[in-house]
Write a structure and sequence with these properties.
heterodimer; A: alpha+beta; four-stranded mixed beta sheet; B: alpha+beta; Glutaredoxin; 53% helix
Chain lengths: 70, 195
């Protein structure tokens, strides 16, 4: 199954929390920091305008984590 | 006893000029350039900001806090740069996340790290007034657009809703930029007692 992709901003507390939780839980994901790359910023904007923005392998998108956004 | 500000002359001088800031940002350079090119002050606005700089205790320095990934900063900072140019005053830009001590002095409602923040100072760094985040009209219109979009697309996913909203919000940006300038003028006019 395709890996989840999470779009983040490097200083976003909600993004940090998500990454800590998923790392602890052993969830496989790829992080794309939108504040470090215009290409990733443009890519994330196709799906939404807030972070963390999670794109699952099946194409579903979720914005925010535990009711927090960056 | 009044708490000493971290914004000393030495610290202020360490901020980026607008041109230096834009030269080193990692994202949204095209958008900053577009908002800067599209932002012109009317003749009476230019006159006002010049007068605000010449007034006794008038503006001499502008401090801006922001981040390049933030849409409100992408729209607001170019307008602030235009105001500084019109007034002939020094603008210094500080990235928020690496200047949290400054940010903590200018929190929105004393608790939120909203950006952009534009602080107008006298020559000796006494705060005259500040303006934060976005104009009131933008807050109202965003809420109206969100409510209307949700009503029109009741079965849409959160992702589709946000994309539809983003398209509708995009058309409002130039008007919100003008409104930001009008609000900054208004707050300065009140504080300095000029028209």
């Amino acid at each position: 199954m395709a890996k989840r992709i999470v779009y983040t901003i490097s200083t976003c507390p909600a993004c940090r929390r998500l990454k800590e939780d998923w790392t602890m839980q052993g969830i496989d994901f790829e992080e794309r920091q939108v504040d470090k790359s215009q290409a990733w910023m443009d890519e994330a904007r196709r799906y939404g305008d807030m972070v963390p923005l999670i794109r699952y392998g099946n194409g579903r998108v979720r914005i925010g984590y535990k009711q927090m956004i960056g | 006893m009044e708490k000493k500000s971290v914004v000393t002359p030495g610290r202020f001088a360490k901020g980026f000029t607008y041109a230096d800031y834009i030269a080193q940002i990692k994202v949204n350079k095209d958008q900053f350039d577009r908002f800067y090119a599209g932002c012109t002050l009317a003749a009476d606005e230019t006159r006002f900001f010049k007068k605000a700089a010449q007034a006794k205790g008038g503006i001499a320095r502008m401090l801006v806090l922001g981040e390049d990934w933030c849409p409100d900063v992408v729209r607001g900072l170019p307008a602030m740069a235009r105001i500084a140019e019109a007034a002939g005053v020094e603008l210094r830009m500080f990235p928020r996340d690496s200047n949290l001590d400054i940010m903590n002095e200018f929190l929105n409602q004393g608790k939120f790290m909203s950006i952009p923040v534009c602080v107008f100072f006298t020559k000796d760094l006494k705060e005259i007034c500040r303006w934060i985040e976005r104009p009131e009209s933008a807050n109202k219109e965003r809420a109206q657009i969100e409510a209307a979009t949700r009503k029109e697309m009741p079965a849409a996913s959160e992702q589709d809703l946000r994309l539809a909203m983003r398209e509708r919000l995009a058309g409002k940006q130039p008007a919100w930029q003008k409104e930001s300038i009008r609000e900054m003028r208004q707050v300065l006019a009140e504080k300095l007692g000029i028209k």
